[in-house]
Amino acid sequence: MSTPAAPTPRVRRPTAQTLGAGAAVLAALAVGHVVVTAFPVDERVQASFLRPTVVGEPVELRYARLTAGEPSGSTVLDADDGSLLSTPGVWLTVPVTIEAVGQPRTFGFAELLGGDGRTYTVSTGGRSGFLPGTAQPGVPRYATLRVEVPPEALAGAHLRIGLEQKDQRRDDVADIDLGLTQADADAWAADDSPVVAGAWSDEPPEQP
Amino acid sequence: MSTQTAPPTAAEPSETGWWRRNRWALAALPVVLALALVAAGDRVRTLWWEQDLRVPTSAEAGTTLDFHQRVQTGTGGTLPIDVEVHLDHVGDATTLPDDLELPAGTRAVQVDLTLGADPDVVLTGCSLAVRDAAGTRYDYVSNAWGALQPVVPCVPEDTPGPWPSLGDLDDVLTDPDDPPRPATWSVSPVVVVPEGVDVADVVLWWQKPQYALLEVPSQPS
Amino acid sequence: MGGAAEHEPGAPTLGRVSGPAAPPDLRARARASGSLVARRALDQPLRRIGIGGAIVLLAVTAAFGGLREQAEDGPEKLAVDVPVAVAPFELTVHRVVWTTDLPGQYLSDDGNRWVGVVATVRNTSDAGVLGVTLQDALTLADVEGLVQEPRALVPGVRATSIALLEDGSSLSPVQPGLSYEAAFLFEQDGSVAPPTSATVLLQQHTWRSGSLDPTETWWDPTTTLRAALDVREARSDADEEAES
Question: Superkingdom, according to UniProt (chain B) (predicted)?
Answer without folding.
Answer: Bacteria
